[in-house]
Design goal:
mainly beta, 4-stranded antiparallel beta sheet
């Protein structure tokens, strides 16, 4: 069973930075393409895809974080990262990492939450003005 554990959340002032980490353990297979992503959910709002990365390091970002957030992965450490710079109050949310495995050729929608089977417990990010 795949397990994901996030860390790195906290409280910062507007313009500050945080780096989230997500350690992945459990099932892996070279027969599948691995996808990983960060989602966030603010109170009263739907879960939103923030950034996603594929096995070949292809990345996707929601428009609101482009140029400010960077998703990366260290396969040797089985760790996914989200570097968040120039944080804004509207970035305040609980951030979740997610992972999915699909056969080659599947047309993945990387920022759609229903595409992901495995989820972490979330880490809170609060940005004050």
């Amino acid at each position: 069973q795949v397990q994901l554990v996030e860390s790195g959340g906290g409280s910062v002032q507007s313009g500050g930075s945080l780096r989230l980490s997500c350690v992945v353990s459990g099932y892996t297979s070279s027969n599948y393409m691995a996808y990983a992503a960060w989602f966030r959910q603010a109170p009263g709002k739907e879960r939103e895809g923030v950034a996603a990365i594929e096995s070949d390091d292809t990345t996707n970002y929601v428009d609101s974080v482009k140029g400010r957030f960077t998703i990366s992965q260290d396969n040797a450490k089985n760790t996914l990262y989200l570097q968040m710079n120039s944080l804004k109050p509207e970035d305040t949310a609980k951030y979740y990492c997610a992972r999915a495995y699909y056969t080659r050729g599947y047309r993945m929608k990387p920022l759609v939450s229903s595409e992901y089977k495995y989820w972490g417990q979330g880490t809170q990010v609060t940005v004050s003005s």
